[in-house]
Amino acid sequence: MRILAIESSCDETAAAVIENGRKIISSVVATQVEEHKLYGGVVPEIASRRHCESINGVIKETLGQAQMKLCELDALAVTYAPGLIGALLVGVNFAKGLSLASGLPLIPVHHLRGHIAANYLAHEQLKPPFLCLVVSGGHSHIVEVKDYTQMKVIGKTRDDAAGEAFDKAARTMGMSYPGGIHLDKAAQSGNPDSFKLPKPKVSGNPYDFSFSGLKTAVINLIHNAQQRGETLPVNDISASFRKTVVESLLNNFTAAAEELGYDKLVLAGGVSANSLLRQKTQEECKKHGWQCFYPPLELCGDNGAMIGAQAYYEFLSGNNADMKLNAAATMDIANLTF
Ligand code: KG4
Ligand code: ZN
Question: What count of Cα atoms within 13 Å lies in the side-chain half-sphere of residue 160?
Answer without folding.
Answer: 16
